[in-house]
Amino acid sequence: MQKREARTATSGHDKWITTTYRMRFTFHIIMESLAAMILEWKRMRIFLGLTLALAVISLGCGLTERLGAGVEEDPPGLASIPTRTPWPTFTPTSEGGVLMPPQAGTESASEGSGDVPPPTLAPPPIDTPPAPPPTDTPAPVPPSPADTPPPPPTNTPAPPPTNTPAPPPPPTNTPAPPPPTKPQYQFSPAPWYAGERNDSIVRFYGYLKDASDTPINGYSVKATCGDFSVLSFPSGPSVVAPDWAPGWYDIVFPNPISCSFSLQVVEYQCNTPGFFDAQCKQVNPLSEAIPVVTDVAAGETIIVASWVKNW
Questions:
Q1: What gap in Å lies between CA 303 and CA 249, rounded to an integer?
Q2: How many CB atoms lie within 10 A of CB 303?
């Protein structure tokens, strides 16, 4: 029984070892295959890079040859034309570049990292062409001011006329209106009108006032009919008529008559102290004699005749 168990354990251990070796072998084969594939991929990348570099170099060389051939061949008749500007120069490159191989140790380092650096190209030598020969083109002479024609005149439009308002006329020395002329007489008649009808008398009455309606006292009114005349008592209260109102006068004829009277303001001049003579002829006229007509048949015997003192 023990032998059988020992044999079973030994066979199981052998199987485990066999399996482990197989797995390691398989893993080793797989790793080698991957390494071979990576190495092949790197070689392909190097080959593709070299092919692309050679194609670019061939294209550049071809373009350089074409451009150089175009520059060297001058078109007919162009050489006889003098010019101040030299022809442009093209710097041709060598027909082939020098491919620099990768450095030692770079490949081993790239194998571990999995990337292969692309090949580098050394710059080709540059052949600088000789400078073009000098031309016989004379240097231009700057124009003198005398040879420069003057610029043509420009038709500058004239500015439109502006409607400038005319200046106002100077002020005229308008003469001041003449002062009002002084009336010839000191009194002038105010509006007259017919009073209340009374066919038994002839009567003239009214007031003497100044321009401010202030009553004026001490003057008489003379009523004349033909050769007959009579004076009123002095206007306002006086010795002979103390009860008269200020500026009031009154003339009464007891017998009504139709006559063409004239009324006039006068200043009493008779020397009759304490007595008033209604028939006094010594008077100083202070107004114009204004005509007024009484008509008994028409009932026009009462006349209201007031006066205004001018000065």
A1: 12
A2: 21
Residues 6+ apart with CB under 8 A from 119: 46, 49, 50, 53, 99, 100, 101, 102
Most confident of 20-29, 166-175, 199-208: 199-208
The predicted-structure confidence for 231-243, as pLDDT tens digits, reads as follows 999 999 999 999 9
Token pair for residue 168? 């106002």
Q: Residue 116: is its pLDDT beyond 70?
A: no
Q: Give yes or no for residue 88 having a pLDDT over 80.
A: no
Q: Which tokens is 166 given?
A: 């005319």
From the list 184, 232, 236, 228, the residue with the least C-alpha distance to 208 is 236
Q: Which range is least confidently modeled, 22-26, 169-173, 281-285? A: 169-173
Whether the pLDDT of residue 139 is over 80: the answer is no
Q: What are phi and psi of 205, to 5 degrees?
A: -150, 165
Query: Which uninterrupted H or E stretch holds 122?
Result: strand 120-122
- Residue 230 sits at φ, ψ, to 5 deg, of -145, 145
Two tokens, residue 77? 């008749």
End-to-end CA distance of the chain: 184
**The model's pTM:** 0.44
- Specify whether the backbone of 106 is left (phi greater than 0), alpha (psi in -120 to 50) or beta: alpha
Give the whole-angstrom CA distance, residue 300 versus residue 156.
95
Q: Which helix (H) or strand (E) holds 267?
A: strand 259-268
Provide the Cα torsion 161, 165, 166, 167; round to 10°.
Answer: -130
